[in-house]
Amino acid sequence: MTPQTAHHLTQDQARRIAVHAALLADERPRDLLDTARRLTMLPLDQTRAVAPAAELVLWSRLGHSHRPGDLDDAIDSQQIVEVAGHWRSIDDVALHRAEMAAWPTPGPWKEWHHRLHDWVAANEAARRDVLERLRQEGPSPISALPDTCVVPWRSSGWNDGKSTRMLVNQLVQRGEVAVAGRSDRERTYDLAERVYPDTAVPSLAEAEAELDRRRLRAFGIARAGAVYQQGDPVGSGEAGEPAVVEGVRGRWRVDPEALDALDRPAPARTELLAPFDVLLHDRKRMDDLLGFDYTLEMYKPREKRRWGYYALPVLRGDLLVGKVDASADHEAGELLLHAVHEDEPFDDDTRSAVESAVADLASRLGLTVAEAPHGG
Questions:
Q1: Whole-prediction pTM value?
Q2: Helix residue spans in the chain (DSSP H)
Q3: Nearest to 281 by CA among 353, 227, 342
């Protein structure tokens, strides 16, 4: 097979491709479900410092056509389901079920895979008890499921005493149990056959290739090969076409359809993004390709934070230009604006656009903006 000629891109071109692919160009999508399918995932993070991350993702794409409650309705109707660590379209579940069928891993087993397999096997009776309870009772939280594990889960301490939770996690990863929804923010579980659609599951090779293709479509340009970030795939495999980015090391793949972005003008929108936005999902790509310095600091002591507890990245056109440190105080009816961090000094137009974006976010939350410079 003749090697493909690589596309040679400047970093500015690569960044524009990424922004357009992430549905952050001027033409907004109109449908929540289509947006979720195109992005391949919505973040699960439920931190309410400002708003749940998935809501921020949808607002930044759909604008005012995304109404409060739309996502909850899609989750309640199981059009959006929790799979593989993210909210995803129900239409993509079959692809992930192919990976579930290869539990505990589709690749070579390591020692911990053998330990995990043996632990589940040793608790076979408990597995049957959980499945039977779900079969009889329907969607249930962990607290309603029987704890009949004969071999307890042992770890460094974080999950000790949580054998049922850890067993159910494995049954979810095996495709026997599924997250059915949430009740008071607590997950409920049911038999996978009652949550997932009864559709044909492709072979593992077909599923992995299609997931790579869809991920590359959402990223526009991505690192080549099997690349993972904390166990989550962020690479494109060998989907798309090879690319070289001027001044950036590594192998890249580009979605050929995304190259159309190079013939379009730079976006004019200014958006406040979720810390877990698809555009920023691969942190190494964010740093290397998008040139953005950002770390979520909610787990850092206050005195060590540079940008704030839950700072929102600022996208101005196709440039990431800063962070907005804000928090929602629903009791007071205020969006507290602690700081606006400018990566480079803002001009008047940029400053005005960011102020408008903050005011727009407050309006969507039913709040008013209040300066609170000593928060964070």
A1: 0.93
A2: 11-21, 32-39, 53-62, 70-76, 93-100, 111-122, 124-137, 163-173, 204-219, 283-288, 348-364
A3: 227
How, if at all, do strands 221-223 and 228-229 pair?
A: unpaired
Q: Give CA separation, 371 vs 72, 325, 376, in Å.
A: 31, 11, 12
Give me 281's structure tokens. 């999902």
Beta strands 186-191; 86-89: pairing state? unpaired
Sort residue 78 into left (φ over 0), alpha (ψ -120 to 50) or beta.
left
Angle, CA 183 vertex, CA 180 and CA 187 arms, to 5°: 50
User: Are 22 and 278 contacting, i.e. CB atoms less than 8 angstroms apart?
Assistant: yes
The 8-class DSSP code of residue 97 comes to H
Q: Point out which residues pair with 370 in neighbouring strands.
A: 336
Domain formed by 102-194, architecture: Orthogonal Bundle (1.10)
What are 330-347's pLDDT values in tens digits? Answer: 999 999 999 999 999 999
